[in-house]
Write a structure and sequence with these properties.
alpha/beta, 14 helices, 12 strands, six-stranded parallel beta sheet, 15% strand
Length: 321
């Protein structure tokens, strides 16, 4: 299970959980899967509002919440705008900040905006750095972080994969979806896409490559839990809906996602977390990005970067299957 979630359960009343409102439905499903109560639910507008206005609203509402409860420490995980906001608010209020999944790095803050900027900002303001790997720990040392502030915790994604795999599905709709997918005869490709760098022509290229694959291979089935963002959801529905051997679903819960991943032959994604989940279960992963902060995924020879190039996607897919 996520170390931070496990800590929340063990500490009980000493810890209060605040949901910032970013990706509200997805977070609520994850909290339910891991048995974590949400003590404070903030509002931050639509998930797809202007970046600056949405982040500003998260900071404003989180600051009010922090003023009310006066915590001794704020803990946040990952590289989302919510984590950026939490680090900023902690600094503004003079509260200690702990960053889980600290110091994943790319070459430039422009490589994956705003995630890389968020990660670097958090490093500056963190009092405790929970590094998921030796590479991340070494990054912290190179950037001048005092060693007594660094803790090598291992990757929380790995814990969450096996926790979810061992947990039972309880929602009837999810149970039915799992039955449908487990009944597929052929090789399953787990496909997700949501990152900004693939908006527009990029997602169109990816969809066209997927259509080409299923047209040429009757044994290949794509399982597609669609992101809620209309800049991703709408083109996926437009280009892939009604295509044989392509199965479109609304976003999965974490438990269902891991079960489907475990049934899959290969993964095609631009998600950082899913890259790590895939290799945790020893599934090859075609990474729909030009770079990744999860370098370990590439080092173990299960992950390959292809960007959103139609040609490179087809070539790598044919190499892997």
């Amino acid at each position: 299970m996520f170390p931070v979630f496990r800590a929340l359960k063990e500490l009980g009343d000493f810890v209060l959980t605040c949901a910032t409102g970013q990706h509200k439905e997805l977070f609520e499903n994850a909290a339910l899967d891991f048995g974590i109560p949400i003590n404070f639910q903030l509002e931050s507008g639509s998930d797809y509002d202007n970046f600056a206005s949405k982040t500003g609203l998260i900071i404003q509402n989180l600051s009010k919440c922090v003023s009310k409860i006066a915590p001794s420490i704020i803990v946040a995980q990952g590289d989302t705008n919510s984590v950026f906001a939490a680090a900023y608010v902690a600094g503004a209020h003079g509260i200690k900040f702990a960053h889980v999944e600290a110091c994943l790095r790319l070459g430039s803050i422009r490589d994956t905006y705003p995630e890389e900027l968020n990660r670097r900002f958090c490093t500056i303001l963190s009092d405790y750095h929970f590094a998921p790997s030796e590479r991340a720990m070494n990054n912290l040392v190179k950037e001048g972080v005092p060693k007594n502030q660094i803790y090598l915790t291992g990757n929380p994604v790995v814990d969450s994969v096996y926790y979810s795999l061992e947990s039972e599905l309880t929602d009837p709709e999810q149970i039915e979806i799992f039955k449908q997918i487990s009944g597929i005869r052929g090789k399953i490709v787990f496909f997700t896409c949501h990152r900004r760098e693939n908006y527009g022509q990029g997602i169109i290229n990816i969809c066209e490559a997927i259509k080409k694959i299923v047209q040429s291979r009757n044994d290949i089935h794509f399982v597609v839990p669609m992101h809620l963002n209309p800049q991703v959801k709408e083109p996926i529905e437009q280009y892939l809906s009604g295509t044989k051997n392509i199965h479109l679903y609304k976003a999965f819960s974490h438990r269902l996602s891991i079960r489907i991943l475990n049934l899959s032959t290969i993964v095609m994604t631009d998600s950082g977390g899913l890259q790590e989940e895939a290799v945790s279960l020893k599934r090859p992963c075609i990474v729909l990005r030009e770079s990744t902060e999860r370098q370990e995924v590439l080092d173990c020879d299960l992950g390959t970067l292809v960007g959103n190039s139609y040609t490179r996607i087809l070539k790598e897919f044919n190499n892997r299957i």
